[in-house]
Amino acid sequence: MAEPPLSLPPPGDGPVEVLFIAGEHSGDQHAALIARDIQSRFPEWKMAAVGGPALQRAGVQLLYDLTRDSVVGLVEVLRHYGKFKALFDSLLEWVATHRPKVVVLVDYPGFNLRFAAALGKRGLSRKGGGHTALYQYVSPQIWAWKGGRRFKMAEILDELGVIFPFEVECYRDTDLPVHFVGHPFAREDYRNPLRYDSEGPVLLLPGSRRQAVGRIFPVMIKAVQAFQRSAGNRPCVCLYPSQEVRGILEHELGRSGLESTALSLRPVEQGTEASAVLSSSGTMSLNCALAGIPGAIVYRAHPLTAWMGRRLIRVEWLGIANLVLKREMYPEYIQEAARPERLSEVLKTAISDPAQRERFLQDAASLDSNLRAERSESVVARLAALIHQA
Fold it and tell me: Is the pLDDT of residue 76 over 70?
């Protein structure tokens, strides 16, 4: 059965300068930092978003919470196709009606690049002959797979801001303007929610995507059970990004038989100190790395998604810190390699080995240096330039 059409609200008070589209919790948080910069420099700009709660807290009019529907992998996307199609069509009509000056597409390339192409076909984007500029913030991982997308991006986008320095070179053979704008976690005003404490709890970060969390968290629970059997009753903390994810965590905890006193759940905004970590390969793993918390990357996808990934992905690592440093800061345990007994040993070593702790501190400092953009143009400056070109 087809999904019913969505009705997105009109702008609250006048024409919109910036429309954000952020489909994941990390993108929502990144976009919120940009929104606050805009409010500081251009308080007269009106902003709207298809995003999440972080953008809403930043004072942006939230048209639809897309982070509630965050999925990953071919199988998961197909299951939710009807809902995404309804939103896609409604959002096209919203742009046609309200004509924002710039659409900021935050990561989420499966949706955002298709939407950019559709805006061009409808004659709404500047590259399509229309009024609205398209700024992509955060590059899709063309260095890992689907590298040919860069040529299509050059056809449909007006500009791209990348957050990893090595990404600029990936677009040298296109005419797309690309700027390294620095990683948001390397900003002076960014407060990392994670801190290292040698006496702190073990930290679990199974991610923000519901399907992935449902596969990763049970493995983490078993690893904690094995760890506590052999290394004592050090408490554990699991951070969650949304109530939907918390529901999955509570369900899996109920099935596991693990005592609630052994593993507590906290919203990610509260943060925590930690002595060791098991993290999915997403954005929070970078927070772990910058805090110098030792541990490992753990990931399990749907078997079909994993099978396709092995044939398409061209990089050696999944973890962001490993990719930026071009070496293994965090060992990675993917699919069948993510065995509870092995992960238990990782936790014991992270807590007891001072040499490993020292190495993680050095890697954290190197990583922070790599992610700073000392002379780059800010995202807000680039958006202002695009708006003034109109």
Answer: no
List alpha helices for the chain, DSSP H: 25-41, 53-57, 74-79, 81-98, 109-121, 149-156, 210-231, 243-256, 283-291, 303-312, 320-325, 340-352, 354-371, 379-389
Domains 18-182+373-389 and 194-371 in one fold: yes
pLDDT tens digit string along 81-126?
Answer: 567 788 999 999 999 999 999 999 999 998 999 999 999 999 999 9
Count Cβ atoms below 10 Å from residue 358 Cβ, excluding itself.
12
Ordered by start, the domain boundaries in the chain are 18-182+373-389, 194-371
* Tokens, residue 117: 């192409």
In this prediction, residue 211 carries a pLDDT of 82
Judged by DSSP in three states, 15 sits in coil
Among 39-43, 337-341, 373-377, the range scoring the smallest mean pLDDT is 373-377
Report the C-alpha gap between 220 and 256 in whole angstroms.
11
CA angle 69/70/73 to nearest 5° reads 125
pTM: 0.79
Could you tell me what percent of the chain has a pLDDT over 90? 67
Pairing of strands 102-106, 18-22: parallel
How many degrees, rounded to 5, is the angle at CA 153 between CA 315 and CA 81? 80
Q: Is 364 helix (H, G, I), strand (E, B) or coil?
A: helix
Level-2 CATH architecture, domain 18-182+373-389? 3-Layer(aba) Sandwich (3.40)
User: Among the CATH numbers 3.10.450.50, 2.60.260.20, 3.40.50.2000, 3.40.50.1000, which is that of 194-371?
Assistant: 3.40.50.2000
Scored b (16 or more CB within 10 A) or e, 33-50 reads bbbbbbbeeeeebbbbbb
Residue among 163, 174, 169, 172 at smallest CA distance from 140: 163
The predicted pLDDT at position 311 comes to 46
